[in-house]
Amino acid sequence: MRLTLENDPCACWRGDPRPAQRSFSSEKVTLKDRSLPNPSWSKDIRLLFDHFMKKCEDGSWEYLPFYTSKSSHKSQDLKTRCPARLPRSPTDLNLKEEQNSEARLFTRSYEEGLGFEYAMFYNDAEKRVVCLFQGGPYLQGVPGYLHGGAAATMIDATAGMCAIMVGGIVMTANLNINYKRAIPLCSVVVLNSQLDKLEGRKAFLSCNVQSVDGKTLYIEATSLFVKLDPNKSLT
Fold first, then answer.
1. 156 catalytic residue (yes or no)
2. pLDDT digits over 60-92, tens only?
3. Which residues touch 120 (CB under 8 Å, ≥6 apart)?
4. Which is catalytic among the residues 8, 124, 156, 213?
5. pLDDT digits (tens, 9 = 90+) for 131-169
6. Which of 1, 63, 153, 188 is most deeply buried (CB count within 10 A of its CB)?
7. Where along the chain do its domains lie?
Protein backbone atom coordinates (compact mmCIF):
# COMPACT_ATOMS: atom_id res chain seq x y z
CA MET A 1 0.00 0.00 0.00
CA ARG A 2 1.33 3.45 -0.90
CA LEU A 3 0.40 6.36 1.36
CA THR A 4 0.83 10.10 0.93
CA LEU A 5 1.68 12.63 3.63
CA GLU A 6 -1.11 14.65 5.18
CA ASN A 7 -1.41 18.42 4.75
CA ASP A 8 0.88 18.87 7.74
CA PRO A 9 3.69 16.37 7.13
CA CYS A 10 5.21 17.07 10.54
CA ALA A 11 2.04 16.61 12.56
CA CYS A 12 2.76 13.09 13.76
CA TRP A 13 6.41 13.95 14.35
CA ARG A 14 5.51 16.85 16.61
CA GLY A 15 3.27 14.79 18.83
CA ASP A 16 0.00 15.88 17.26
CA PRO A 17 -2.74 14.08 19.24
CA ARG A 18 -4.74 13.25 16.14
CA PRO A 19 -4.57 9.53 15.31
CA ALA A 20 -3.79 8.45 11.77
CA GLN A 21 -6.77 8.26 9.44
CA ARG A 22 -8.12 4.72 9.31
CA SER A 23 -10.63 3.31 6.84
CA PHE A 24 -10.36 -0.38 7.69
CA SER A 25 -12.27 -0.26 10.96
CA SER A 26 -14.32 1.89 13.32
CA GLU A 27 -12.43 0.47 16.27
CA LYS A 28 -11.66 2.94 19.04
CA VAL A 29 -8.02 3.96 19.50
CA THR A 30 -6.75 5.10 22.89
CA LEU A 31 -3.87 7.54 22.79
CA LYS A 32 -1.07 7.57 25.37
CA ASP A 33 1.65 10.16 25.79
CA ARG A 34 4.83 8.14 26.35
CA SER A 35 6.85 11.22 27.36
CA LEU A 36 4.95 11.78 30.59
CA PRO A 37 6.40 10.62 33.94
CA ASN A 38 5.74 7.00 34.91
CA PRO A 39 6.59 4.99 38.06
CA SER A 40 10.01 4.00 36.66
CA TRP A 41 11.23 7.61 36.54
CA SER A 42 13.82 8.55 39.13
CA LYS A 43 13.65 11.69 41.27
CA ASP A 44 16.26 13.38 39.05
CA ILE A 45 14.33 13.06 35.80
CA ARG A 46 11.05 14.01 37.47
CA LEU A 47 12.57 17.20 38.89
CA LEU A 48 14.05 18.09 35.49
CA PHE A 49 10.73 17.40 33.78
CA ASP A 50 8.89 19.68 36.21
CA HIS A 51 11.56 22.35 35.74
CA PHE A 52 11.15 22.40 31.97
CA MET A 53 7.37 22.22 32.15
CA LYS A 54 7.57 25.37 34.26
CA LYS A 55 9.65 26.99 31.51
CA CYS A 56 6.88 26.18 29.03
CA GLU A 57 4.42 28.40 30.87
CA ASP A 58 5.72 31.63 29.32
CA GLY A 59 5.91 30.12 25.82
CA SER A 60 9.69 30.22 25.54
CA TRP A 61 9.85 26.42 25.59
CA GLU A 62 7.53 23.82 24.09
CA TYR A 63 6.92 20.36 25.50
CA LEU A 64 7.00 17.70 22.77
CA PRO A 65 4.59 14.88 23.63
CA PHE A 66 4.91 11.47 22.08
CA TYR A 67 1.57 9.82 21.34
CA THR A 68 1.12 6.14 20.66
CA SER A 69 -2.17 4.30 20.50
CA LYS A 70 -3.42 1.06 21.94
CA SER A 71 -5.57 -1.20 19.81
CA SER A 72 -6.61 -4.81 19.94
CA HIS A 73 -6.57 -4.96 16.12
CA LYS A 74 -3.04 -6.41 16.01
CA SER A 75 -2.86 -6.97 12.27
CA GLN A 76 -3.18 -3.20 11.73
CA ASP A 77 -0.96 -2.20 14.64
CA LEU A 78 1.51 0.00 12.77
CA LYS A 79 -1.22 1.94 10.99
CA THR A 80 -3.21 2.57 14.17
CA ARG A 81 -0.17 3.49 16.23
CA CYS A 82 1.55 5.73 13.66
CA PRO A 83 4.00 6.78 16.39
CA ALA A 84 4.56 10.47 16.95
CA ARG A 85 7.63 11.75 15.11
CA LEU A 86 7.77 8.70 12.87
CA PRO A 87 6.85 9.99 9.39
CA ARG A 88 4.07 8.37 7.49
CA SER A 89 6.29 7.87 4.48
CA PRO A 90 4.96 7.61 0.92
CA THR A 91 5.77 3.90 1.01
CA ASP A 92 4.54 3.27 4.57
CA LEU A 93 8.00 1.84 5.25
CA ASN A 94 7.51 -0.61 2.36
CA LEU A 95 6.50 -3.30 4.85
CA LYS A 96 4.18 -6.19 4.09
CA GLU A 97 1.03 -6.58 6.16
CA GLU A 98 2.51 -9.35 8.29
CA GLN A 99 5.60 -7.24 8.96
CA ASN A 100 3.52 -4.20 9.87
CA SER A 101 1.97 -6.04 12.78
CA GLU A 102 5.38 -6.43 14.43
CA ALA A 103 6.87 -3.01 13.64
CA ARG A 104 7.66 -0.66 16.53
CA LEU A 105 9.58 2.57 16.80
CA PHE A 106 12.90 1.49 18.34
CA THR A 107 13.06 3.98 21.21
CA ARG A 108 9.48 3.27 22.30
CA SER A 109 9.50 -0.52 21.95
CA TYR A 110 10.42 -1.36 25.56
CA GLU A 111 8.18 -1.71 28.57
CA GLU A 112 8.24 1.22 31.00
CA GLY A 113 11.53 1.56 32.82
CA LEU A 114 13.45 -1.11 30.89
CA GLY A 115 14.77 0.83 27.94
CA PHE A 116 14.55 4.40 26.67
CA GLU A 117 12.75 6.74 29.05
CA TYR A 118 12.86 10.32 27.81
CA ALA A 119 11.07 13.61 27.29
CA MET A 120 11.96 16.43 24.90
CA PHE A 121 11.50 20.20 24.99
CA TYR A 122 12.02 22.71 22.18
CA ASN A 123 13.08 26.36 22.25
CA ASP A 124 12.23 28.01 18.94
CA ALA A 125 14.20 31.21 19.57
CA GLU A 126 17.37 29.20 20.21
CA LYS A 127 16.53 26.44 17.71
CA ARG A 128 17.39 23.98 20.45
CA VAL A 129 16.01 20.71 21.80
CA VAL A 130 16.71 19.42 25.29
CA CYS A 131 16.14 15.74 25.98
CA LEU A 132 15.89 14.33 29.51
CA PHE A 133 16.99 10.71 29.26
CA GLN A 134 17.05 7.76 31.65
CA GLY A 135 18.52 4.56 30.19
CA GLY A 136 17.01 1.37 31.62
CA PRO A 137 18.66 -1.98 32.47
CA TYR A 138 17.99 -3.48 29.03
CA LEU A 139 20.38 -0.92 27.51
CA GLN A 140 23.51 -2.19 29.24
CA GLY A 141 26.83 -2.43 27.41
CA VAL A 142 29.87 -2.87 29.65
CA PRO A 143 28.44 -4.12 32.97
CA GLY A 144 27.06 -1.20 34.91
CA TYR A 145 27.14 1.27 32.03
CA LEU A 146 24.89 2.36 29.18
CA HIS A 147 25.64 0.80 25.78
CA GLY A 148 27.34 3.28 23.44
CA GLY A 149 24.83 2.43 20.72
CA ALA A 150 21.95 3.34 23.02
CA ALA A 151 23.56 6.71 23.67
CA ALA A 152 24.06 7.20 19.93
CA THR A 153 20.40 6.39 19.36
CA MET A 154 19.31 9.14 21.72
CA ILE A 155 21.73 11.62 20.16
CA ASP A 156 20.30 10.81 16.73
CA ALA A 157 16.73 11.12 18.07
CA THR A 158 17.40 14.43 19.83
CA ALA A 159 19.33 16.09 17.01
CA GLY A 160 16.82 14.71 14.52
CA MET A 161 13.92 16.19 16.46
CA CYS A 162 15.66 19.56 16.48
CA ALA A 163 16.11 19.36 12.71
CA ILE A 164 12.47 18.36 12.29
CA MET A 165 11.19 21.26 14.39
CA VAL A 166 13.28 23.66 12.33
CA GLY A 167 12.80 22.33 8.83
CA GLY A 168 10.31 19.46 8.56
CA ILE A 169 10.82 15.76 7.90
CA VAL A 170 14.49 14.84 7.72
CA MET A 171 16.78 11.84 7.53
CA THR A 172 20.17 11.35 9.15
CA ALA A 173 23.00 11.72 6.62
CA ASN A 174 25.96 11.81 8.99
CA LEU A 175 26.58 11.40 12.72
CA ASN A 176 29.96 11.94 14.39
CA ILE A 177 30.28 10.99 18.05
CA ASN A 178 33.10 11.53 20.53
CA TYR A 179 32.67 9.50 23.71
CA LYS A 180 34.31 11.21 26.68
CA ARG A 181 33.08 9.14 29.63
CA ALA A 182 30.87 6.10 30.13
CA ILE A 183 27.31 6.80 31.29
CA PRO A 184 26.25 4.82 34.39
CA LEU A 185 23.34 2.50 33.67
CA CYS A 186 19.92 3.77 34.82
CA SER A 187 21.32 7.25 35.51
CA VAL A 188 19.76 10.44 34.14
CA VAL A 189 21.53 12.60 31.58
CA VAL A 190 20.62 15.73 29.65
CA LEU A 191 21.07 15.97 25.89
CA ASN A 192 21.34 19.43 24.35
CA SER A 193 21.08 19.75 20.58
CA GLN A 194 20.99 22.94 18.56
CA LEU A 195 20.96 24.00 14.94
CA ASP A 196 24.36 25.30 13.83
CA LYS A 197 23.70 26.00 10.16
CA LEU A 198 21.17 25.56 7.36
CA GLU A 199 22.30 25.10 3.77
CA GLY A 200 19.40 24.46 1.44
CA ARG A 201 18.02 21.05 2.40
CA LYS A 202 20.95 20.37 4.74
CA ALA A 203 20.76 20.99 8.49
CA PHE A 204 23.95 20.88 10.55
CA LEU A 205 23.52 20.31 14.26
CA SER A 206 25.60 19.74 17.37
CA CYS A 207 24.70 17.78 20.48
CA ASN A 208 26.24 17.08 23.86
CA VAL A 209 25.34 14.74 26.70
CA GLN A 210 25.91 15.93 30.25
CA SER A 211 25.16 14.93 33.81
CA VAL A 212 22.16 16.45 35.56
CA ASP A 213 24.34 19.00 37.37
CA GLY A 214 26.17 19.88 34.15
CA LYS A 215 29.58 19.10 35.65
CA THR A 216 30.29 15.93 33.65
CA LEU A 217 30.48 15.85 29.86
CA TYR A 218 29.83 12.33 28.59
CA ILE A 219 29.55 12.80 24.83
CA GLU A 220 29.97 15.42 22.13
CA ALA A 221 28.52 14.95 18.65
CA THR A 222 27.87 16.69 15.35
CA SER A 223 25.34 15.65 12.74
CA LEU A 224 23.98 16.35 9.29
CA PHE A 225 20.32 15.87 8.41
CA VAL A 226 18.76 16.22 4.97
CA LYS A 227 15.21 17.43 4.46
CA LEU A 228 13.05 14.96 2.57
CA ASP A 229 10.72 15.63 -0.32
CA PRO A 230 7.31 14.39 0.93
CA ASN A 231 6.32 13.51 -2.62
CA LYS A 232 9.17 11.10 -3.15
CA SER A 233 9.81 7.59 -1.87
CA LEU A 234 12.39 7.04 0.86
CA THR A 235 13.97 4.26 -1.24
1. yes
2. 999 999 987 654 333 333 333 333 444 444 344
3. 35, 63, 64, 66, 129, 130, 131, 132, 158, 161
4. 156
5. 999 999 999 999 999 999 999 999 999 999 999 999 889
6. 188
7. 30-67+107-227
